[in-house]
Amino acid sequence: MPKLSAALQGTVNQKLNSIGPSGIRAFDQKITGTPGLAKLTLGEPGFNTPEHVKEAGIRSIRENDSHYSAQKGTPALRNAISGFLKMRHGLDYDPKTEIVATIGATEALAASLSAMLNPGDKVIIPTPAFALYVPLIVISGGIPVEVDTSQDNFVLTAKKLTETLDREGDAVKALILTYPNNPTGVEYSEKELQDLADVIANRPMFVIADEIYSELTYGVTHHSIASMIPEQTILINGLSKSHAMTGYRVGYIAAPADFIKNAAKMHAFLVTAPSNPAQAAAAEALANGLDDPKEMCVQYKKSRDYVIGCLDKLGFETVPPKGAFYIFAKIPERYTQNSVDFATDLALKGKVGVIPGSAFGPGGEGYIRISYAASVEDLHAAMTNMAAFVNADATIA
Question: In the chain, what are the domains?
Fold first, then answer.
């Protein structure tokens, strides 16, 4: 096995070298393999990709659709994205100049931040937040500004945004807004978004709206901030969560043409183009599978209500999520450990796998993230094990 030359030790990108691995993945790997573990760790939909979507991908292969697609994505997919955004949110994006199909929402974020940031630019991140944002900002030369929202029911208020902008000054280039949120499941109301939009509209800044969970809401309507300030919004979305297509890796960016020009250039440098069968499947999902997420949401809501009911009995405080498929549960005060130690004990001794809240930045300590996108059997096993772990008198049905 080759060993790196001593002369090359430490010569890698120092920004990347300074960043640790994802706290989510690292903890999941740490506890994976624990005998009898009921895992509620990763954000993986507990459904198979719909049959008509799979068939579209298979058809692409059978028809020898094996050559490079347009770098921005196939016309069929970009047209489907444009039509979806128009029908769902009343948004008008030209499929030729204002949309790029990417390798999942992850690459959409990476391409957008790389195209946007210059050294020293600041990006505001309301936390708790998905752990990917900080590393991507740092690698792109930016400075992450994490804003703790735990005292405001995990919502970034217009007041706190204004205070942050006043404090951080003109170096602020963007705000990353995720809703429904990972890890909290919190969804922003139309008024909350409009209040934020009013603040952003008066500043020379972008808002990166990560709406990957937009199709998974419970009893509320998802509103996009792009409908309020389209000229400043970089809209990120994809098919991974809505259609259980995590392995297909299809996402997209929708934004003003002037921004897309550079984002598409960065995207082309990174990946050239998404795979054709995956794009064919995604186009089918957006054009003919708009009801697919509704069927999934019915089960997700049942699972959410079941897990919250169990957690209430066991003394865990929760903010009932209105979207996505996570519960961010506060660790009972009788436990004095930090969230990593608690989650480790819960896995090794209680046989329940969750993610410690500290993996999601300021405001996450003292919490655990539970994914309820699992089978009914796994959820029941996890809640039964958790009840035994906390020595509760509650009966988990």
Answer: 6-48+292-389 (3.90.1150.10), 51-288 (3.40.640.10)
